Amino acid sequence: MLVLLVSSAQNPPMENENIWSQFADINVWIFDLDNTLYPAHCNLFAQIDKKMGEFVSDFLQVEHAEAKAIQKQYFHEFGTTLNGLMSRHDLKPDDFLHFVHDIDVSNLERADKLSAALDQLEGRKIIFTNGSEAHASNVSRQLGIDHHFDDIFDIKKSNFVPKPEMAVYEQLIEELDINPKKSVLFEDMAKNLKPAHDLGMTTVWIPNDEHWSHETSDGDHIHHIAEDLSEWLHALLEDRAAL
Ligand SMILES: [Mg+2]
Predict the structure, then answer these.
(1) Does any domain span residue 181?
(2) CA of 241 to the centre of ligand 1 (A)
(3) Which ranges of the chain have pLDDT less than 70?
C-alpha cells in the first residue's frame, strides 16, 4: 500500500502507532456540530453565515456590507455574532437563532460511514454546539446520525455564553455528569479545544481551510488531528480491533 506522508509546520506526522490505548477509558464522546459532524466543504455553514448577515442588516437597518463587517467584528469580539448583538443591542436570542438556522439541509448527504463508526463506540455521545438544539437536530437527522446522541448541549443551555469560554465547558461537565479525563472533544476550531484540554479532556482537531479553524492551533492542547472524522474514527476502531 502506498502511503503518502504529508507534513507541514502545523501538522504533526501521520499517526502510525496504535492509538487505541489513549481512548480505551473514554466513556463520553463529545462532538461539535458545524464543520465537524459534516465536512466544511458541504458549505452548509456558508448559508448560516449569509443569513446572519441578512439578519444583522435588517435588525440594525444597515447596508449589507456594513452588516457583514459588524457580524465579523462581533464574532471576534464576543465569540459569536449573537453574543455581540445581545450585548450591544439587547437582541432577543430566539429571533436570531430561528432566522439563521432556517436553512436548506437537503444537499447534505447521509453520513452512513460516520454512523457505522459511532455505532461501534461505547459510551455516551453528545453534541456540543454554539448553535441551537433545533439546528443540531435538523442537521444530525439529515445526516442520519441523530439516533446516536444522548444529549445536545446548545447555546441556550449555556445561557448564550459560547465556546471557548471556560465556564461553558465547566457547565457541560457539571450538568451532564462528565468525567473530563474520560471524555474526548472533536472540534474544527482549534481554539475551542484549549479549555477542553485544560480540563483534562482528550482533544481531536478537524481542520478546514478557513483561517478561524486554525486560530490558536499551535500548542499542546491538540492531541490528535483528523483530516476526515469518519475515516479517523474507523482507523481508531481498527486499532481497537488490532489489540
Ligand atoms: Mg464547528
Answers:
(1) yes
(2) 30
(3) 1-15
